[in-house]
């Protein structure tokens, strides 16, 4: 009998960090091989399942940053430290960290889009010798929706950071969309580099157009997609776009592939 | 070896077989059809070969035997998930070549895609043997020949039905014993060699052409016609999509089960994500998606064959009289026209 890969397993919650009113980070005990940018199916008996990106990777723990928007996510927010979070995974493609090494890296992330790329950022923060430079443009709607404040503060010492809020002006943050700040990245001075773009679909489209305008070639751009998913293992069909299954070949795609994924 | 077998004898064999197998065939449910005074023909377990409807196309395919409309995946309590169980009876399915080929397409999705095997599908699929039923006529919406699915060698028995006698070819030694005392005859199963309906398949060579296909005006016709009912996808032998949902047994308890239920890409909410954001928002978009899956992108992904097997059930079931073969032919005409414009 082959292993049932849709069987959820219990993971003990060891910490819950309140990022905003509606976004909490859950840390669970887990000793698993995972890659940056992959996701799990959070799987709660009685309510159902939801795909959630890994937002942090530790020696024997994983973090998930979850926005409370509906059935499954509401129920996750009822859980407390010490209780079990049922999950299955990891699933999907990841950011090719090795390809980013010893080059310049530009990360453009909007809102909850910071979450799938956070473990990559932390990796290069802790291994800053393995990257030439890292430019981080992170944007949020307003002061109340800022995620990972502590991390953002720390990143300033190793990365070139631009933090921005859509309309509000507060200390440490610029005003405007992430796309308004892309021109500040000195693409011309880079020899070899990559660009990661993660956020809502409209933001990813706009940011990709903007970096292309700045002379970046498609092969160097990486994005992460969100689609409705039910199985996460290539069976249910919900995530399919043409011949591509986002749960299998994605969520992380190179732009050369992503630009052809039309609905 | 082939034999002439009386109906009575075949029913005796069936009785023996039923000790080990669940035997499924298309049977008639009187007055249960879509319109008043019409019957419904669909798959169910049989007690007599007399019940097998061999000279009409079934409204639904045999896929529900292996990929049930609703299926329990897990039973859960607050603390654990337990995989659902099935009994250990084997399965015998009476089917025409298109449906056996259709089930091979399901195999590709459930057993190959993503390099993982779906245990719920596999545990049923591994039990299945086929009884091939000869197509005695070419029904008006069939286009199996265009799809290359009019033939198969995946069967244990092949049967040609007659009024009171059956011609039976025994291919699987397991069944030879049941017929040893019967009269040997010269019978070879005949596959259909001509359809009234012929379908030309589109040649979409690259993504540039695909983008043009997306923008074709022809899809917009379906905005007025298609009512998003999903009858086509539930009748289709190769449609495999599903949604999982949890059901609880009592209001306050956490005891319950996780099920999966057939889903349709023709339904509006098929791609809807939290926040209400969805993709393919018009019937036109969804019709394009389904058409291209059946005659373009499944083959792009898996290489060998198209997903559609030309059984024509989607056409038969459509309330709005949308003919899938006409849709494909129209698409091919348009692609040919676009091709000429390029050259
Ligand atoms: C690869 C991937 C990674 C993801 N990573 C994360 C992550 O790291 N963090 C995160 O928080 N999320 C992430 N998501 C999104 C997350 O999966 C969804 O937010 C989650 O599935 C919501 O599930 P739910 O059951 O809580 O909400 P549901 O109950 O399914 O949906 C609730 C929301 O949808 C709306 N809604 C529901 N039905 C309708 C309707 N019929 N019409 C209009 N609106 C409707 C509700 O108003 C509500 O806002 C990711 C998704 C993918 C595909
Ligand atoms: S989520 Fe089911 S196929 Fe991708």
How is this fold's topology laid out?
The complex is a heterodimer of chains A (263) and B (343).
Chain A: E1 9-18, E2 23-29, E3 39-44, E4 48-57, E5 61-67, H1 71-76, E6 84-91, H2 97-100, E7 104-110, H3 114-126, E8 133-140, H4 149-155, E9 160-165, E10 174-175, E11 193-198, H5 201-213, E12 221-224, E13 240-241, E14 244-245, H6 246-249, E15 252-254, H7 255-258
Parallel strand pairs in A: 7-8, 7-11, 8-9, 9-10, 11-12
Antiparallel strand pairs in A: 1-2, 1-6, 2-5, 3-4, 3-6, 4-5, 12-15, 13-14
Chain B: E1 2-6, H1 7-17, E2 21-29, E3 40-45, H2 63-66, E4 70-76, E5 81-83, E6 90-95, H3 97-112, H4 119-125, E7 128-133, H5 144-147, E8 157-161, E9 165-170, H6 176-179, E10 183-184, H7 207-214, H8 221-225, H9 231-235, E11 242-248, E12 256-262, H10 283-302, H11 313-317, H12 324-342
What does it look like?
The complex is a heterodimer of chains A (263) and B (343). Chain A is an alpha/beta fold. Chain A folds into two domains: 9-91, Elongation Factor Tu (Ef-tu), domain 3 (Beta Barrel); 97-258, Rossmann fold (3-Layer(aba) Sandwich). Chain A has helices spanning 71-76, 97-100, 114-126, 149-155, 201-213, 246-249, 255-258; strands at residues 9-18, 23-29, 39-44, 48-57, 61-67, 84-91, 104-110, 133-140, 160-165, 174-175, 193-198, 221-224, 240-241, 244-245, 252-254. Chain A has a seven-stranded mixed sheet, sandwiched between helices. A six-stranded antiparallel beta barrel of chain A has the order 1-2-5-4-3-6. A two-stranded antiparallel ribbon of chain A has the order 13-14. In chain A, β3 (39-44) and β4 (48-57) form a beta hairpin. The longest helix of chain A is centred in the middle third of the chain and has 13 residues, at 114-126. Chain A starts with 8 loop residues before the first strand and ends in a 5-residue tail after the last helix. Chain B folds into two domains: 2-62 and 86-184, no CATH class; 207-241 and 265-342, no CATH class. In chain B, 31% of the residues lie in helices and 20% in strands. Chain B has twelve helices and twelve strands. Chain B has helices at residues 7-17, 63-66, 97-112, 119-125, 144-147, 176-179, 207-214, 221-225, 231-235, 283-302, 313-317, 324-342, and strands at residues 2-6, 21-29, 40-45, 70-76, 81-83, 90-95, 128-133, 157-161, 165-170, 183-184, 242-248, 256-262. The termini of chain B are far apart. Classes of the chains: A alpha/beta (263), B alpha+beta (343). Bound molecules: flavin-adenine dinucleotide (FAD) and FE2/S2 (inorganic) cluster (FES). Residues 229-232, 234-239, 245, 247 of chain A line the site of FE2/S2 (inorganic) cluster. Chain B: InterPro entries: 4Fe4S_Fe-S-bd, Sulphite_reductase_A. Chain B: This is Anaerobic sulfite reductase subunit A.
């Amino acid at each position: 009998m082959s292993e049932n890969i849709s069987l959820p397993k219990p993971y003990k919650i060891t910490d819950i960090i309140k990022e905003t009113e509606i976004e909490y980070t859950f840390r669970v005990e887990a000793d698993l091989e995972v890659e940056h940018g992959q996701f799990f199916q959070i799987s709660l008996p009685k309510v159902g399942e939801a795909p959630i990106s890994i937002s942090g990777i530790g020696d024997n723990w994983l973090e998930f940053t979850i926005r409370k928007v509906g059935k499954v996510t509401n129920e996750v927010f009822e859980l407390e430290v010490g209780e079990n979070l049922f999950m299955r995974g990891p699933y999907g493609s990841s950011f090719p960290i090795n390809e980013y090494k010893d080059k310049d890296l530009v990360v453009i992330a909007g809102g909850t889009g910071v979450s799938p790329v956070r473990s990559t950022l932390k990796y290069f923060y802790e291994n800053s010798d393995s990257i030439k430079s890292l430019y981080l443009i992170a944007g949020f709607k307003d002061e109340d929706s800022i995620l990972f404040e502590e991390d953002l503060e720390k990143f300033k010492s190793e990365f070139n950071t631009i933090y921005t809020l859509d309309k509000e002006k507060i200390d440490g943050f610029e005003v405007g969309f992430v796309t308004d700040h892309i021109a500040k990245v000195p693409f011309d001075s880079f020899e070899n580099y990559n660009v990661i773009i993660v956020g809502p679909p409209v933001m990813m489209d706009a940011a990709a157009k903007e970096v292309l305008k700045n002379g970046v070639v498609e092969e160097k751009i990486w994005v992460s997609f969100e689609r409705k998913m039910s199985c996460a293992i290539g069976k249910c069909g919900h995530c399919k776009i043409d011949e591509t299954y986002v749960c299998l070949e994605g969520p992380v795609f190179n732009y050369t592939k992503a630009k052809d994924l039309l609905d | 070896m082939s034999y002439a077998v009386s109906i009575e004898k075949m029913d005796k064999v069936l009785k023996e077989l039923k000790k080990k197998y669940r035997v499924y065939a298309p049977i008639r449910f009187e007055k249960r059809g879509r319109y008043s005074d019409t019957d419904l023909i669909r798959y169910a377990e049989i007690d007599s070969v007399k019940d097998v409807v061999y000279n009409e196309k079934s409204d639904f395919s045999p896929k529900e035997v292996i990929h049930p409309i609703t299926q329990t995946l897990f039973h859960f309590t607050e603390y654990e998930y337990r995989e659902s169980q099935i009994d250990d009876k084997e399965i015998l399915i009476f089917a025409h070549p298109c449906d056996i080929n259709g089930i091979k397409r399901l195999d590709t999705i459930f057993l190959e895609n993503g390099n993982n095997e779906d245990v719920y599908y596999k545990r049923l699929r591994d039990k299945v043997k086929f009884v091939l039923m000869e197509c005695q006529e070419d029904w008006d919406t069939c286009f199996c020949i265009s799809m290359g699915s009019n033939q198969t060698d995946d069967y244990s028995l092949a049967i040609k039905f007659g009024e009171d006698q059956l011609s039976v070819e025994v291919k699987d030694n397991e069944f030879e014993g049941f017929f040893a005392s019967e009269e040997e005859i010269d019978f070879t199963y005949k596959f259909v060699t001509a359809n009234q309906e012929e379908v030309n398949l589109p040649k979409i060579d690259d993504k540039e052409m695909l983008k043009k296909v997306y923008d074709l005006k022809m899809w917009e016709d379906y905005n007025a016609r298609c009512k998003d009912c999903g009858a086509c996808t539930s009748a289709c032998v190769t449609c495999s999509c599903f949604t999982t949902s949890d059901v609880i047994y009592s209001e306050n308890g956490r005891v319950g089960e996780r099920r999966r239920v057939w889903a349709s890409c023709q339904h509006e909410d098929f791609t809807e994500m939290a926040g209400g954001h969805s993709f393919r928002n018009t019937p036109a978009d969804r019709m394009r998606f389904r058409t291209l899956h059946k005659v373009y992108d499944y083959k792009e992904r898996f290489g060998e064959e198209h997903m559609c097997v030309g059984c024509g059930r989607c056409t038969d079931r459509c309330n709005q009289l949308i003919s899938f073969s006409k849709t494909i032919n129209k698409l091919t005409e348009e692609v040919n026209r676009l091709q000429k414009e390029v050259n």
